[in-house]
Amino acid sequence: MALASQSTRSDRPVHSIRRSRTLLGTRGIIALCAAGAAFGGSYWLMSGDAQDAGVGPAPKSSGALLASTENATLPAIPAQLTAKPIAPTPEVSNAAEQAAPATPPATAPETAPESTPAQPAAAPQTAPAPTAPVGNGFDGKQLESKPQSTAAQSVTPGSVSEGLALAATDPVKARRILSEALLSGTLPPMESKQAADGLAKIAAQLVFTPVYNASDPYFFQYTVQPGDSLEKIVRKHKIGCDWRLVARINNIKRPEAIRVGQRLKLPKGPFSAVVTKRDYRVDLCMGAGSDRVVMTSLPCGLGSANGTPTGRFRVRPGSKLLNPEWTHPVTGQHFKADDALNPIGEHWLGIEGIEASNSSLAGYGMHGTIEPESIGRDMSLGCVRLVAEDIAIVWETLGDGCEIEIR
């Protein structure tokens, strides 16, 4: 059977040789980001889906090639599908940040696309609320910190140690115990880190492997049918993730190589995420309500001056982009796709508030970074940033409408 083409802009593999990062370019970017955070600068992601913004076409949607009836061989187990190492970035001094310009230009577009609204940064608690710059879509209200929930569910003392002890012999049960403890929001920092590290290791046994565990209720097996593609399979079963996550789980390097009769391991949705600001951590979850478990835990970076808002959000429909263009809200500097100095990396997903306290906020998202040293620190304009490999997993897992709690 002839194979359909899958070569689209958003599908092309991440370059194996990443563009070099220069110390001068990185310092300049950090300086401008710090200025935007300090003065509530807007943060416009210039997404290609807004033709009226004149920023170029959006990446086309993609899907894996149709399954062939030929006796194609299974691909060898490769590295993570979308993994791409980030070139080391020199440490940037705070002096460069403090030297950044203080006032955003008055020419910020007032009719920017939904995925590119302003990103204000919250002022420190001792400072007055920031004044909204012209056209940034922010009403100037001070962001309120949301205390970490302690009433979600009680955690039995010793539950973390119990879960860690079971990880080798019963990873499914261990994941349940550690997930309940971690998502309760009641663990002290040290135990929280132990639980998160344990869940990340369990993910290697239960999630990111083609080996199917029949006792794991969050996965099922599927046999490839004639005419199937990974995208069709995900859509048919309403999984809610991107087809690239299925390729990652099954270690499929060449989606066009799937064949009729091949058994695939598929995850069950829905998916969600919890961002814990205290611990600089993103917990990706499978399932819903009290039945959800942590799929994996990933470190992240946050907004300077407590600029990352809290509350319940969701992935804004149509906001997910691969290899996006971006325009700096303060300087107006435009970064094209494939630009080595593009501060947001190669993955972007926009988020929107779904509570009365955050529904008017706009311009925030989760994205990559060219500065791995910013992970675990407050350096962004308010967005949640992750290293290239980790944001790829988040991007593949969270589809339109998936809920994200930031606490």
Give a quick precis of the structure.
Helices cover 21% and strands 15% of the residues. By secondary structure, it is of the alpha+beta class.
Radius of gyration: 21 Å
Strand % is 5-15%
Total helices: the number is 8
Distance between the termini: 51 Å
Average pLDDT figure:
73
Indicate the percent of residues in helices: 10-25%
Structural overview:
The protein has 8 helices and 15 strands. α4 (171-183) runs antiparallel to α5. It has 2 domains: 23-63 and 84-148 and 270-406, L,D-transpeptidase catalytic domain-like (Beta Barrel), CATH 2.40.440; 159-267, Roll (Membrane-bound Lytic Murein Transglycosylase D, Chain A). It has helices spanning 23-38, 94-98, 159-166, 171-183, 189-206, 230-236, 243-249, 388-397, and strands spanning 219-223, 263-267, 271-276, 281-286, 293-299, 302-303, 311-315, 321-322, 326-327, 334-335, 347-353, 365-367, 378-380, 384-385, 403-406. The N and C termini lie far apart (51 Å). Strands 3, 4, 5, 7, 8, 11, 12, 14 and 15 form a 9-stranded mixed sheet that branches. A two-stranded antiparallel ribbon has the order 1-2. A two-stranded parallel ribbon has the order 6-13.
Secondary-structure map with pairings?
Layout: H1 23-38, H2 94-98, H3 159-166, H4 171-183, H5 189-206, E1 219-223, H6 230-236, H7 243-249, E2 263-267, E3 271-276, E4 281-286, E5 293-299, E6 302-303, E7 311-315, E8 321-322, E9 326-327, E10 334-335, E11 347-353, E12 365-367, E13 378-380, E14 384-385, H8 388-397, E15 403-406
Parallel strand pairs: 3-15, 6-13, 12-14
Antiparallel strand pairs: 1-2, 3-4, 4-5, 7-11, 7-15, 8-11, 9-10, 11-12
